[in-house]
Design goal:
The complex is a heterodimer of chains A (177) and B (137). Chain A has 177 residues and is of the alpha+beta class. Chain A has one domain (20-172): Thiol Ester Dehydrase, Chain A (Roll), CATH 3.10.129.10. Chain A is 18% helix and 34% strand. The longest helix of chain A is centred in the middle third of the chain and has 19 residues, at 55-73. Chain A is globular, with a radius of gyration of 16 Å. The N and C termini of chain B lie close together (10 Å). Chain B is mainly alpha-helical. Chain B contains seven helices and two strands; from the N terminus they run αααββαααα. In chain B, strands 1-2 form a two-stranded antiparallel sheet. Chain B has a single domain (5-136), classed as ACP-like (Non-ribosomal Peptide Synthetase Peptidyl Carrier Protein, Chain A, Orthogonal Bundle), CATH 1.10.1200.10. Chain B is globular. In chain B, helix 1 crosses helix 2 and helix 1 crosses helix 7. Classes of the chains: A alpha+beta (177), B mainly alpha (137). Chains A and B meet through strand 3 of A and helix 2 of B.
């Protein structure tokens, strides 16, 4: 992943759908916040006259929050691959100017993979905020050197921009890495 | 407090309905997880996680299914071993090897027709129930 360049040579958007971590309890749960901007290209994909965050990108935000939580729980030993979206139930549309909070919780974690459940809420005040969605995700673990097989880079959650998100959280929370 | 086979079967049914998105009526004892219920590779991990959760009564002592015990891994490696699969048919040695890996499955059909295709049909709801009965009993 990382930056891709358009034909005009300027950077296209980074594929990162969370802005910062508000809470991070290693191996247990995490909360990430995203502020939605009208400048985001993908908001105009669904209904051209009525920009909303596509549901698929809300799922992606949850997958990124949960993927970092799962990866960090095992010290990023393996590659964490989004394998299955068990459930995704949506209650409202998300509009430019909204703040989204992704709360992810690890249900199960093993060598083979992990399952997480998450809720998405509107605002950054806490779990009592208006519900946007409930999402269940399963990840698969792949050893970094899996028998020489190669996987497309974009399958993997972790690039520096994601681990930097964690570093930023820890620095501001006064916790040393 | 040990669970009866019916209680175990009922929980297995519930797990498969959740994991595979099938209706309860579609899940019968003889249903094959892959051929009948449509399970794909990632679904096996989901089924495993949900079974562990469903049969955990004490959160401090969670019920765990050791990796590879219920859903054996690397079965494909057996296919390329001539002792076990020859000319597209599973040899008696091959069947013995599979019985070691899947002691809870019913091999009567496979023994009548020892093809790789028939081997896919070993994992049934009954087989999973048998496994859990042996682990929890």
């Amino acid at each position: 992943m990382g930056n891709r360049h358009s034909a005009f040579g300027n950077d296209l958007m980074r594929w990162i759908w969370i802005d910062r971590f508000a809470e991070f309890h290693s191996g247990v749960s995490a909360v990430a916040i995203k502020n939605v901007s009208l400048a985001e290209e993908h908001l105009h994909d669904v209904y051209p006259a009525y920009p909303i965050v596509p549901h698929s990108l809300i799922i992606e935000g949850m997958a990124q929050t949960a993927g970092i939580l799962v990866g960090e729980a095992r010290q990023f030993r393996e590659k964490v691959i989004l394998a299955k979206i068990g459930k995704a139930t949506f209650h409202r549309l998300v509009r430019p100017g909204d703040t989204i909070a992704y709360r992810a919780k690890i249900d199960q974690l093993s060598d083979a993979g992990a399952s997480i459940s998450g809720t998405v809420t509107l605002g950054s005040n806490g779990p009592a905020d208006a519900a946007i969605a409930e999402i269940e995700i399963m990840f698969s673990h792949i050893d970094k050197n899996l028998a020489g097989l190669s996987f497309p880079e974009h399958n993997f959650v972790f690039t520096e921009q994601f681990t930097d998100l964690l570093k930023t959280y820890r620095d501001s929370a006064g916790i040393s890495i | 407090m040990a669970l009866s086979r019916e209680e175990i079967y009922s929980k297995v049914q519930g797990v498969l309905v959740d994991a595979l998105g099938v209706d309860e009526e579609e899940v019968t004892p003889k249903s094959r997880i892959s051929a009948d219920l449509g399970a794909e590779s990632i679904d096996y991990l989901d089924i495993l996680f949900r079974l562990e959760k469903a049969f955990t009564t004490d959160p401090t002592k969670p019920f765990k299914i050791p990796r590879g015990e219920l859903f054996p891994e690397n079965l494909e490696a057996l296919q390329s071993d001539e002792r076990f699969v020859k000319d597209g048919k599973i040899t008696p040695d091959g069947i013995a090897e599979m019985k070691k890996r899947l002691p809870f499955a019913d091999f009567s059909e496979l023994e009548k027709n020892p093809t790789a295709e028939a081997a896919q049909s070993l994992l049934t709801v009954d087989a999973i129930t048998n496994y859990l009965v042996s682990k929890l009993g």
